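We treat protein structure as text, and this decision shapes the records that our systems exchange. Because each token names a local backbone shape, the row as a whole describes the fold. An entry from our holdings is shown next, in its original layout:
>
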Amino acid sequence: MVPVVRTIQKYWPDTELTWIIGNHEAKLVGDIPGIEFIKFDKTKGLGSYRSIARQTRHRKFDVLLCAQVSLRANLLSTLINADLKLGYDRERSKDLHSFFVHHHIKPVPQQHVLDSFFSFIEHIGLPDRDMRWEYNIPDSSYQFAQEHLEDDRFKVIISPCSSHPLRNWRAERYAAAADHAIRSLDAQVILCGGRSPTELQMGQEIEACMQMKALNLIGKDTLKKFLALLQGADVIISPDSGPAHLATGLGTPVIGLYAASNPKRSGPYFSQQWCVDKYGAAAQAFKNKSANELKWGAKLEYPGVMDLITVDEVTSRLDTLVNHQ
């Protein structure tokens, strides 16, 4: 959503913007100037809705962009007084989304999520795009990155975990890809991730399976420090997860690992050619259908689905990317 906001700020600079955002997401983008952020604490249950109601009770907005179709977002929309509530077309609606909005963006088959976000401002009269993220990264985060990145080596970040475990590749396969990067490219390999037990364990398992040595920073960075690391890296290897999209915003190529979800819908926007796309094979294996026969956006989160991605496919993408650069 950030480039959509940047586009509004560029072409309609007098527009007042309010963004209702989760606490965790606010740590990443909540310091963008010119935006009023209202934080929604998902952990407080009904109290979080009451907080939003208090903060918006006596306010009137011209337009509410309902760009999320979750039940939580749908319920939140009822607390916002707006002349126009704009949501998705009926084909992409779920959780009764259509009942909460007044108008719908035009239906576009097989549209990438980022393109669908831009459809919202196109609907209200802004057809241009400013594909600019420009995250605010403090000097302390750049200092952290400088302390850990080796200037004279090709730098590969592996962010191994999605918040959906069935989208994750096996630790031994990450390890084999990392060993290849070090042996063949003399690369510096950095493992990155959060502090959850799943991520910490994954990092330990990758290290245990490796024959070479990686720098394991899982659980040791913050969002902003991770952004600085990403900005200094040459490539990131990641499943369908937030880091793949953060890298896109920084111009860092992404070797995306996609079998449980469709990269044409939710893959890294500028790195489609680098993704290992086994979604079609997964559709055939687990649904006995082609990818085109599935509903757009259907997830194939089944045990073993990510095993369709081989180490050779990932290392081949890595080698091709190096030669391309």
In short: The longest strand covers residues 17-22. DSSP finds 13 helices and eleven strands in the chain. The CA atoms of residues 71 and 95 lie 5 Å apart.
